[in-house]
Amino acid sequence: MEDRGSGPELILVFSGKRKSGKDFITDLIQNRLGSEVCCILRLSGPLKQQYAQEHNLDLDQLLGPGPYKELYRADMIRWGENRRNQDSGFFCRLATSGDQKPVWVVSDARRLSDLQWFRSEFPRQTRCVRVQCSEETRVQRGWSFTPGVDDAESECGLDSGVEFDWIITNEADAPSLDEQLQPILKAAQEAASLVRADP
């Protein structure tokens, strides 16, 4: 399944709970590697785009961090689950179509089917990364439990039964992010150098 032309040399598939800091960390990785080497793919982007189109909603607000998307989050989750039940790779294919960077950072894997799709389509390149922090830290970052959201598969689907290549603990008293990200950045730089060395 890997014959995709000049596809990625490394795919870092990130997962974590809301307010765990995965967007911050994936942005940090892209900043360190540079946008010519690394792109961030968000599985929620195509989902929100399709949902907004079918429900006549404001896509920019659905993609943003504000309260607008919270009004639709529970229904959007149900709608997305129905789509995934029909075709588990639907949103993964939409998110990955067309990007030719050597390193892909998937910032928001939420279900086992997401990981399985990447591992099936790109078995050599895929590495899975979990970002975790305490509930207390998430509350300090503005999280509060929302029934139908925080107990849905979109938040709990990767809590157990998954073997991650790396686990990042995003807490004040954990080792620094610089220290924790070193092996990931090293793997990404090695992947990028493979592409540069290949004429």
UniProtKB/TrEMBL annotation:
Q: What class of enzyme is it?
A: transferase
* InterPro entries from the UniProt entry: P-loop_NTPase, Pmev_kin_anim
- Functional pathway: Isoprenoid biosynthesis; isopentenyl diphosphate biosynthesis via mevalonate pathway; isopentenyl diphosphate from (R)-mevalonate: step 2/3
State whether keyword Lipid biosynthesis applies: yes
Which Pfam families does the UniProt record give?
P-mevalo_kinase
Instruction: List the catalytic activities from the record.
Output: (R)-5-phosphomevalonate + ATP = (R)-5-diphosphomevalonate + ADP
Q: What is its main location?
A: cytoplasm
Compartments annotated for it: namely: Cytoplasm, Cytosol
Give the EC number(s) under which this enzyme is classified.
2.7.4.2
Q: Which UniProt keywords apply?
A: ATP-binding, Cholesterol biosynthesis, Cholesterol metabolism, Cytoplasm, Kinase, Lipid biosynthesis, Lipid metabolism, Nucleotide-binding, Steroid biosynthesis, Steroid metabolism, Sterol biosynthesis, Sterol metabolism, Transferase
PANTHER family under this entry? PHOSPHOMEVALONATE KINASE
Q: What is this protein called?
A: Phosphomevalonate kinase
Species per Swiss-Prot/TrEMBL record: Ilyodon furcidens (goldbreast splitfin)
Q: What is the lineage of its organism?
A: Eukaryota, Metazoa, Chordata, Craniata, Vertebrata
